[in-house]
Write a structure and sequence with these properties.
Helices cover 7% and strands 56% of the residues. By secondary structure, it is mainly beta. It has one domain: TonB-dependent receptor, beta-barrel domain (Maltoporin, Chain A), CATH 2.40.170.20. The strands form five sheets. It has a 22-stranded antiparallel beta barrel. A five-stranded mixed beta sheet has the order 1-6-7-4-5, with no helix packed on it. A hairpin with a 7-residue loop joins strand 29 and strand 30. The longest helix has 22 residues. 40% of the residues are buried. This is Iron complex outermembrane recepter protein. GO terms for molecular function: siderophore uptake transmembrane transporter activity. Belongs to the TonB-dependent receptor family.
Length: 640
């Protein structure tokens, strides 16, 4: 068993910090005789060491139009990911390639933000506004991002102000159906050495829509009550170019959510309320020298949750301290090597625990990118993690991309990767249910794909297909024991396999610009072995994993007008692992019409949006009513 006491952790922070300062001081000496080698030449940051993996990025047009939405809404509409939402005001969690929410890593500027208590992120509390980029990496990514990245990873980054010099401002006001009001304002400044950005938002929605109560005879139409949501938050980013080769940045992110948890159909209202509050602070230091690029990140995250109902009143307060130091060296256009150290310490106070719990983790990693030929890219990554009371395995990954044609129109890609997930604090320490004997989950992922880009009749086409096979052993699942008490166990071995298809097209006809994107996934997620309990569910699809999921979006721009449409299909899902009950498939259509008006150097955007155009009756979780057709109108003023 490996123990990493907080005292050693703190000493490591001091040593790493001094080492970073020392290397910066040395590098500030005369290095003009050395050629500066940076890694950005290899492509987008999310893809540099993810060769052979399926990586996508949300386009800026959609993020701008739907800036008042949550991250769950944005990802559900633009990617074939499936989100389980407990109604309009409930928790929203993601399922990647048939895995569960705790098997997805969510990173902000490269550091995992999931609290150690739950080990998962509630996407309904994360806004779209305030981010620079949102990228998605499918499949096991533990070598790059650590524990939890079994099914995939969501990569969030702060805005980059280097491309926008001077002062800019942005104000958006929105009103919509079901008592919805949203406001957002941001200001950005970028100069020669200093950059600053501040973005704040506020949302209030009553969610008083009418729905068909499927739990009652005749399915009468009733009005939703006790589902109001109040959210607010801000992001703040400060950048300072100390020297042309040294940059210091400070990032802050605050979110607040106070909501009535929507009751299930047919249930007695229990006055369930939940308040979530998160504070995230991060300092980053970047320096470029003849040794390459040095990155040091120091962060403090705090997640507070207060839940109440008629009979309960509980609080959870988690502090997380993280340090990550990386050194990247790139040699021309042929290879790049990144080595690093990640340290984490968690302190949790929870009314469900016998006392305060803390845990320290560490990992070292090496990421290698090698392009031996113009048409061949390779990556080999390794990560070794250390955790108190656990011995996580060495986690490797290998990826390749090969372009057999001289015109680079076709690419064959693939990867082999491992992954792991440590049990959460709730899994181990919850009173009357926690299981300290849990073993870490371990996963293996294999994928193979084709990527084709071409221009046909002045239309840019991109087609991609990926097939994957994933196995996760010691899958942790909360299930009732022989006394009926719910507790976590290493219940099963699960095999996930499927196909992911995507396509995009762009064409310009005079003043008319057309763009379309499509995505489809087939996901089979079945139990292969059951270590505890009944084996009757072996070979059956896991609950709330749709076999079929598809999205289609299209945008047309003509002069000052633009029309954006999103079509989202979710197939049948079982509500138990025995496949005895299920939820019907559903198809959602959203439309948005925008008019751009130039006011001298400034821009005014008027947007009319319609969600669930066909008034589809659907559920993502059993007996949780979702909103019918709704309308939203927004004004956005951009300076300059």
């Amino acid at each position: 068993m490996v123990r990493f006491p907080f005292r050693i952790f703190f000493i490591c922070i001091l040593i790493a910090s001094y080492a970073g300062l020392a290397s910066t001081a040395v590098a500030q000496q005369d290095s003009t005789a050395h050629q500066l080698r940076v890694v950005e030449i290899f492509g987008k940051p999310a893809e540099v060491y993810a060769v052979g993996s399926h990586v996508t990025q949300l386009d800026s047009t959609y993020l701008s139009t739907y800036s008042s939405s949550t991250l769950a809404d944005a990802l559900q509409a633009r990617t074939p990911l499936y989100f389980k939402s407990y109604g309009a005001s409930g928790i929203s969690s993601v399922a990647f390639r048939g895995t569960n929410a705790s098997q997805t890593a969510v990173l902000w500027n490269g550091l995992n933000i999931a609290p150690a208590t739950l080990g998962q992120t509630d996407f309904s509390t994360l806004p779209v506004t305030g981010f620079g980029e949102v990228a998605v990496q499918y499949g096991a990514a533990a070598t790059n991002y650590g524990s939890g990245a079994i099914g995939g990873a969501i990569l969030l980054s702060s805005p980059d102000y280097d491309d926008h010099k001077g002062l800019e401002a942005d104000i958006k006001l929105e009103a919509g159906s079901f008592g919805r009001y949203f406001g957002n304002g941001s200001v950005r400044y970028s100069g020669k050495k200093l950059s600053y950005g501040l973005s704040a938002y506020s949302l209030w929605v009553e969610n008083d829509y009418k729905f068909k109560d499927l739990s009652r005879f005749g399915k009468p139409e009733v009005r939703q009550e006790h589902a109001s949501v109040e959210q607010r938050g801000l992001t703040q980013d400060i950048g300072w170019a100390i020297t042309p080769k040294t940059k210091l940045a400070l990032h802050g992110w605050y979110t607040f959510s106070d909501r009535h948890l929507q009751p299930a159909m047919g249930s007695v209202y229990a006055n369930e309320k939940q308040r979530d509050e998160s504070r995230r602070l991060m300092a980053t230091l970047q320096h470029e020298s003849w040794l390459g690029k040095t990155d040091i990140k120091l962060a403090y995250f705090n997640d507070f949750l207060h839940y109440t109902d008629r009979n309960n009143d509980s609080e959870s307060d988690v502090d997380a301290y993280q340090l990550q130091a990386e050194q990247t060296y790139a040699y021309g256009r042929h290879w790049s090597l990144r080595g690093g150290l990640n340290l984490q310490h968690y302190q949790a106070k929870n009314d469900g625990y016998a006392g305060e719990q803390d845990e320290s983790r560490a990992s070292v990693f090496a990421l290698f990118r090698y392009d031996p030929l113009e048409h061949l890219q390779l990556s080999l990554n390794l990560r070794q993690a250390f955790a108190e009371n656990y011995n996580p395995p060495l986690t490797p990954s290998f990826g390749f991309t090969y372009k057999p044609l001289q015109n680079d129109l076709l690419a064959i890609k693939g990867s082999l990767s491992g992954s792991y997930r440590l049990p959460t604090l709730n899994d181990r320490f919850w009173l009357g249910a926690g299981n300290p004997e849990l073993r870490p989950e371990q996963g293996k992922n294999t994928e193979l794909g084709l990527l084709h880009k071409t221009v046909l009749n002045q239309t840019e086409l991109t087609l991609e297909a990926t097939a994957y096979l994933m196995q996760v052993d010691n899958w942790i699942q909360w299930a009732p024991n022989e006394r009926g008490t719910w507790r976590p166990t290493n219940l099963q071995k699960v095999e996930n396999k499927g196909v992911e298809l995507s396509a995009s097209a762009k064409r310009k006809l005079g003043q008319l610009s057309l763009q379309a994107n499509a995505g489809y996934t087939y996901t089979s997620s079945e139990q292969q072995k059951v270590y505890e309990g009944s084996g009757n569910d072996v070979g059956k699809q896991l609950m709330y994993v749709p076999l079929h999921k598809g999205v289609f979006s299209a945008e047309a721009r003509y002069q000052a007008w633009s029309l954006l449409g999103n079509l989202n299909y979710t197939g049948l899902r079982y509500t138990s692992n025995s496949e005895t009950n299920s939820l019907d498939s559903f198809l959602l259509l959203n439309l948005a019409l925008t008019r751009k008006i130039k006011l001298q150097q400034n821009t005014l955007l008027l947007t009319l949006r319609t969600d669930n155009v066909t008034d589809e009756v659907y559920q993502t979780m059993l007996n949780r009513a979702m909103p019918p057709r709704g309308y939203t109108f927004s004004l956005r003023f951009i300076i300059p």
